[in-house]
Amino acid sequence: MSCFYKMDCEVPLMPTKPEIRIVLLGRYGKGKSSSAKTIQGQPEVIGPTETCQEKTVVIDGQKVVVVDTPGLFRCVPDPEKEKEKERVVTEMKKSIKHGGLHVFLIVISSCDTFTKEEEDTVEIICRTFGKTTLTFSMVLFTYRNEVRGKIEDRLNVKVWRNLIIQCRWNYHSFENEVQDPKQVTDLLQKINSMIEANRGRCYTHEMLQDAEKALEIKDNEKKEQEEKEEKEEKENLKENETDSRRNFIRTTAFLGAGGGCLMGYLFGGGTVTSSTLAAAGGLVGVLLAGGSARLMTVKNLCKCKT
Ligand SMILES: Nc1nc2c(ncn2[C@@H]2O[C@H](COP(=O)(O)OP(=O)(O)O)[C@@H](O)[C@H]2O)c(=O)[nH]1
Ligand SMILES: [Mg+2]
Predict the structure, then answer these.
(1) Which of 89, 135, 139, 169 is most deeply packed, by most CB within 10 A?
(2) What is the pLDDT of residue 284?
(3) Dist CA 121 CA 104 (whole Å)
């Protein structure tokens, strides 16, 4: 039933549309905050977004909760990027706990060519929030007036089209530099159709927990694989070391014995004594080889202890 009636009169009350909860995601500087302000009908953005900002507005009689987020993937060094991502996710969890999210607006600048960065953005969103995220996602192109031709022309590019297809052709474009209330009402209309197609379902806290569990399993598997590879590498290294040690002993024995024989022969002046001395020299050579092998073993033992 779409209308409600007061018990004592015939005048219908305003039909109450269900509340919509929107979150804006994307790279730093692509127009998330500007788009949030456009939806909220507010003027310019002041400074960068450091925390998630949630604001409720009523548009055409419908309550709309808009959550603006800091750039998930700000250009910072990798460990910092991880910290930043964790911070945004923590903030988002709070907002999801309040009542789930109907739409992830993936904000992309129309001026950008679809690069690895955009691909990564979508990949990270799916990895963080789970594959189901795309069921609840809509691509929002900003800087509409900056591109020549229609936004649809861009969809001829395979990578763009693939993304839109993954988002079930849910996309919209904004020009945040002009006051155009129609772009907001059009967006809401598309979002309402999308919610209807999703039968009113929204992205819940449980889905986030599932995604986190899946991510944890994947991370553990990755860690196990890395440990296995490291172990195999160490074993190979050890085997190579043993082989080279054997070769070293063999060479030392050969050289020692050969050298000893030569020395014995030379010092003995080519007499019978020389043969005896040569044999003794050979023996010394073999002993030398044995000694160096033992020395190497002791060295390795010391290495293991330190
Ligand atoms: N021309 C134009 N500039 C925009 C548009 N959207 C955002 N900007 C500008 O892009 C810059 C970054 O926008 P901001 O909303 O702070 O990006 P965020 O980091 O994704 O929140 C600001 O200087 C905005 O004025 C747009 O649709 N058109
Ligand atoms: Mg911002």
Answers:
(1) 139
(2) 59
(3) 13
pLDDT at residue 12 in the model: 46
- Domain shared by 206 and 273, yes or no: no
Q: pTM (2 decimals)?
A: 0.70
**Shared-domain flag, residues 84 and 158:** yes
Which residues does ligand 1 sit against, CB inside 6 Å?
Answer: 26, 28-34, 45, 49, 71, 142-143, 146, 174-177
Shared-domain flag, residues 185 and 81: yes
- 52/24 Cα distance (integer angstroms): 10
Which pLDDT belongs to residue 57? 94
Q: Which atom of ligand 1 is nearest to the CA of 30?
A: 20
What would the two tokens of residue 286 be? 């073999």
Q: Whose CA is nearest to atom 28 of ligand 1?
A: 143
User: In this structure, what CATH number is given to the domain that contains residue 198?
Assistant: 3.40.50.300
Report the residue among 30, 34, 121 best suited for mutation to probe ligand 1: largest number of ligand atoms under 8 A from its CB: 34
Question: Residue 60 in contact with residue 172, Cβ under 8 Å?
Answer: no
Residue 124 pLDDT grade (very low, low, confident, very high; cuts 50, 70, 90): confident
Rg (CA), the chain: 36
- 258-297 tens-digit pLDDT: 665 566 666 666 555 555 655 665 565 556 555 555 555 5
* Cβ-contact 139, 166 below 8 angstroms: no
**DSSP 8-class letter at 169:** T
Ligand having the closest approach to the CA of 29: 1
Encode pLDDT of 170-198 as tens digits.
Answer: 999 999 999 899 999 999 999 999 999 99
Rounded distance from Cα 30 to ligand 1 centre (Å): 6
Last residue of a domain, one of 210, 236, 265: 210
Structural domain count, the chain: 2
Are both 197 and 285 inside the same structural domain?
A: no
Determine the distance separating the centroid of ligand 1 and the alpha carbon of 68, expressed in angstroms: 13
Q: Name the residue of 88, 106, 140, 176 to mutate for ligand 1: max ligand atoms within 8 A of Cβ.
A: 176
Domain range holding 251? 245-305
Task: Kindly give the distance from the C-alpha atom of residue 53 to the centroid of ligand 2, in angstroms, as a whole number.
Answer: 9
Cβ atoms 32, 24 nearer than 8 A: yes
